[in-house]
Amino acid sequence: MSMTEDHGGDRPPSAGPLAHRVPDLGALELLLAVARLGSLGGAARELGITQPAASSRVRSMERQLGVALVDRSPRGSRLTDAGALVTDWAGRIVEAAEAFDAGAQALRDRRDSRLRVAASMTIAEYLLPGWLLALRAERPDTAVSLLAGNSAAVAERLVSGEADVGFVEGLTVPAGLDSVVIAHDRLIVVTAPSHVWARRRRPLPAGELAATPLILREEGSGTRQVLDAALGGLARPLIELSSTTAVKAAVVGGAGPAVLSELAVGEELALRRLVRIPVDGVALTRDLRAVWRTGPPPAGPARDLLSLTRA
């Protein structure tokens, strides 16, 4: 089959909900199994479905995407060039789904072995899902409850005994807590491509950044604390929002510039939905820390989680 085969005139939708444009996880897992086994029948057996059902699912996926994915012959099934590319993307989606499932399972499990984790928003959104997936592999019977908030809220939960271990992004360790640095992070200035800063030929002076109203996280956020200290003060916020995701959405929508963790904006920069603005005269870096109540280091599941964050 040709990569441009029309499949009976059906064309993939160019708009509408993402769920209508992207194959479901079952179809992507089937495609990955075909790629690994070289046989549609073998893939069907591995997934516990019939071969006609597997063939139907592949045809449906091809119609949805508008390209041929699998060449079938008496000798087996071979991916087309387009199929090989789609399989590579499918692998990333399935890995992300596994991390999502691990996080969701951790939030709903209620078993004897329990770990309560408090994390600031950037770490909770961009690092914890992978750590929790690895922890579940080591401790499948440990139920993890996750409490997400800004760095100040994390400290409060630990001091009050509501959490066993926490993760923060601020400059200092709050009173009553011990800590260890687990990683380093860089904050970067980002704007929409239409913003005047995106057309600059020279780095933005730190003083101009400090004097410019920005889209900021709320008071108590580690990101805001680090930025305020690095610049020696900030202008009144243009908009104040309570999550990294909300800040990103506002910047992408053209509301104004923001300073965000490099962890949070990789996809948007790659797709040119955001533009990175170089800054001169200031280093916007910070430590990411694991924190716990002052005393002995965490034991049990909390100790295992800490070991995974530093692997």
Structural write-up:
There is one protein chain. By secondary structure, the protein is α/β, with parallel strands linked by helices. The chain contains 13 helices and 13 strands. It has helices at 18-21, 25-37, 40-47, 51-65, 81-108, 121-126, 128-138, 151-159, 206-211, 222-231, 244-252, 266-270, 301-309, and strands spanning 70-73, 76-79, 113-120, 142-149, 165-168, 177-191, 204-205, 215-217, 239-241, 258-261, 275-277, 279-280, 285-293. Strands 3, 4, 5, 6, 10, 11 and 13 form a seven-stranded mixed β-sheet that branches. A two-stranded antiparallel ribbon has the order 1-2. α2 (25-37) crosses α3 (40-47), α5 packs across α7 and α7 (128-138) packs across α13 (301-309). The two termini are 45 Å apart.
H/E topology pattern = HHHHEEHEHHEHEEEHEHEHEHEEEH
Q: Assembly state here?
A: single chain
- The strand count comes to 13
Query: Which bin fits the share of residues in helices?
Result: 40-55%
Radius of gyration over all CA atoms, rounded: 24 Å
What does the average pLDDT come to?
A: 87
Shape label: flat
How is the biggest beta sheet arranged? Answer: 7 strands, mixed
Backbone structural class: alpha/beta
Low-confidence stretches: 1-9
Query: How many helices does DSSP assign?
Result: 13
C-alpha termini separation = 45 Å
Residue fraction in strands: 15-25%
